[in-house]
Design brief:
83 residues; mainly alpha; rod-shaped; 61% helix
Length: 83
């Protein structure tokens, strides 16, 4: 787990209503205060989440496509672009 995830976990572990500052937690974990507050407020996602959102196929669709291609290959029918 990265430092930003550790800092987010520390914020989530605080009791509800307990006061904290993003700057204090950012200093403890050595992360950017701005990034920490954006991630905590869910304004900005991680790069991994952004990459998933940019994919044309979802993870399930991708798995089904791979399964289909493997099935074709096992039958001796290599997939073509037209397929």
């Amino acid at each position: 787990m990265g430092a930003i995830e550790d800092a987010l976990a520390a914020i989530k572990s605080l009791d509800e209503g307990e006061q904290f500052t993003y700057q204090a937690i950012a200093d403890i974990y050595g992360v950017s205060r701005t990034t920490l507050s954006r991630r905590h407020k869910q304004v900005q996602g991680s790069r991994e989440e952004q990459a998933i959102n940019l994919q044309l196929l979802g993870p399930h669709q991708e798995a089904e496509l791979v399964k289909y291609i493997v099935g074709l290959t096992e039958r001796g029918l290599p997939p073509t672009r037209e397929m």
